[in-house]
Amino acid sequence: xxxxxxxxxxxxxxxxxxxxxxxxxSNDGFPLSTYSMxxxxxxxxxxxxxxxxxxPDGRPHRLSPDLIGGSDEIVLAAAEVSRAVREGKTRALCAxxxxxxxxxxxxxxxxxxxxxxxxxxxxxQGEKQPRHTQVHxxxxxxxSRKTGKTTWERRDKPASAVAIPRGLGAQ
Amino acid sequence: MTAEAQSSRLRQxxxxxxxxxxxxxxxxxxxxxxxxxARLAVLRLCTGIFSVLYLVLRGPHWLxxxxxxxxxxxxxxxxxxxxxxxxxxxxxxxxxxCLLTGIAYxxxxxxxxxxxxxxxxxxxxxxYRNSWGQIFHSENLMVLHVLVIGFAPAADVCSSDRRRSxxxxxxxxxxxxxxxxxxxxITVLTYLVAGLAKLHNAGFSWAxxxxxxxxxxxxxxxxxxxxxxxxxxGAALVAHHWVFPPMALGSLFVELGAxxxxxxxxxxRIWVPAAWLFHVxxxxxxxxxxxxxLFGVAFAAFYRVERLxxxxxxAPLVRHWT
Lengths: 171, 322
Prior knowledge:
The complex is a heterodimer of chains A (171) and B (322).
Chain A: H1 2-22, E1 45-54, E2 60-62, H2 65-69, H3 74-86, H4 90-103, E3 110-119, H5 120-123, E4 132-143, E5 150-154, E6 160-161, E7 169-170
Parallel strand pairs in A: 2-7
Antiparallel strand pairs in A: 1-2, 1-3, 3-4, 4-5, 4-6
Chain B: H1 3-13, H2 17-29, H3 37-62, H4 88-107, H5 111-129, H6 140-150, H7 160-164, H8 174-202, H9 210-225, H10 232-237, H11 244-256, H12 258-263, H13 265-286, H14 291-294, H15 315-321
């Protein structure tokens, strides 16, 4: 009896672990996963959705995952920006990032949600400038000295191509 | 108890190397053959120590999600039914409770309750933490293993419970064997699924190395674009395309060949180091850490881990728990 029960448990758990594969790798889950990370060909040309801070001279600076996504996990920040771009919610994301930027006293007058397209292989051979940059939303974090409250001026633009100059600094 | 009696009891409780030699060939071939209780107990200790440390080190970062906007919440797995995020305080309390039961699981304190409870709480908090638009594939195997061990008789020896019990423990028993082999089976099946996903999504062209090259390049580039640390080795290697076909073939060997390791101890001796090196490669080329396999805990069920208890360093602990 004990042996039969053990056999049933082993079979059931094995089927459960294999189920995401049997179901065609359609939906990833947890802890039963399709483990499909790294499985698709992204090609050389890839787009990175991110948020940058522009300094007073208009030069873009990288923002940390914590400023972008509210967590130190880069994949969570990347997923959040991708979702916002996909669902057309970049204004709200821009405002949320601007709030965090202002709260931490970073001196960026403008924050932008952008999609940057690169040749990922050429990137590490010196081609660090994006081939194409699409600005989805711009907003300006402003901190009122009197009230201590942060306000945001949204400067939403239609999607446009803007070349981001070289020399992006990490913040 | 005299030192001699203690020593004798130790010898009885822990499986001895000599007695194992005769049984081991059979036990790997027969999934349901008996095993010593110490093997399962050591696996409890390994997974427990790892999970508790993981919770201590990563838990504070998980609490960030308490402040996320509710629109980011995409419940998965056992939490699919949740329509909105849990109140921050509830998640924080569950995480702390999970940590406390994790300590009880590790020490084998009231294990019949704390074992399953820790497994379920770990499933709950990790599922919740993965329900925010990104699944962290580094936690799946840890959770599955803890669930299996939590429901198994993994605290019959080397545990707080053992100190309170005078019931005899068999040298080897059926109930200590199959859960260990189930852990190894789960490990190899997860690698198999990862390999099948590559064939499903990219076909055999994955073996040419181009997909891997693009993944390594993209992942490092994205890290750079987010102002975080990327792998300088991976970044340097993308200029050398010839490196990637052998690495791709090696990855497919580890993943698609994994089931053989579940049934052949000889193959497992090759497969486990290969799988470990695979994760070392992921760390070296993509700066992605899979701590559960990297620290060897994912592969512990392939070995006679009860031998660890023979280490002099662990002798005081063993005496305390025996």
